[in-house]
Amino acid sequence: MKTKNRWRLVSAVFICTLLLSGTGCAGSEMNAAEKMDLSNHSQMDGSTSAPEKDDAGGTEDSNDISAMSGEGSRLAGSLDEYIDALIADTEWTTEYEREVLERAKANGGVSVTDYEQTWSRYKQCMLDKGYKEIILIKYPNGIYREASYRGGTEQQMAKYHNDANICMADVGAVAQVYQMQIGNPALFSNMNEAIVDCFRRNSLVPLTYTAQQYAQERIDNEYTIDRQDMEIRGCEVANGLVAGYPGDPVEELW
User: Fold this and answer.
1) Cα distances (angstroms) measured from residue 166 to each of 43, 116, 187, 226
2) CA distances for 104 relative to 174, 198, 225, angstroms
């Protein structure tokens, strides 16, 4: 089982704890550069956020304007270069992932078929381990993420985290490249810049809307965009920023 960080090549990826108030980011956002466990992030309805098997991190200071550090820099010179780095890391990338990524390099990117099959394998793996349901939320841009879940006993939670890490082993690199294709084809290393570029490419914001503005709105927790809009959320999730809202599905695992 792999224990290395699944997103360490992405220098500016964050998670948001699930919101059930629908008013913005509850608490602090999470830096995905380090390993974290979200099993104790209880929600107002008693649910917890599904552990981010690919995104991980420590707590970010939401008052830190350095959210725009690295603006203009790129994660790699091209998608092929990015894929090559993943393929070369045999300690982290599984044989299944390398097969998918080799096809991706030959075909100009991870195919929808390979991406959906990868998530389907994860879901079936978890169901085979005895969980009642695994809900994959699909955003308008085709990006998937697992829904939050209702917490169980300490023993159930420990087993869930172990099982999820095992079943997620073949997902990280494939999802990483596919999300990059959809949400950040320019390979921006700054998350805010990547998200706003996605907004603009999909005509979700005026061209005058900037990454700096979005970063400040995140800090202030006051938005001029509708963060509950599924297309807006799709751009955020494609770049590692996840937030939940009232009405989102919640898994009943046990």
Assistant:
1) 25, 18, 28, 36
2) 9, 21, 34
Write out the two tokens for 243.
Answer: 């937030």
Q: What is the pLDDT of residues 128-169, one digit of tens each?
A: 999 999 999 999 999 999 999 999 999 999 999 999 999 999
Q: What would the two tokens of residue 197 be?
A: 């570029």
pTM attached to this predicted model: 0.79
Burial of 199 (0-12, 13-18, 19+ CB in 10 A): buried
Distance of CA 41 to the CA centre of its chain: 17
**Rg of the chain over all Cα atoms, to the nearest angstrom:** 17
Instruction: Give CA–CA dist 81/17, Å, rounded.
Output: 32
| 56 φ, ψ (degrees, to nearest 5) | -145, 155
A 10 A CB-CB count for 165 gives 15
Amino acid at 87: I
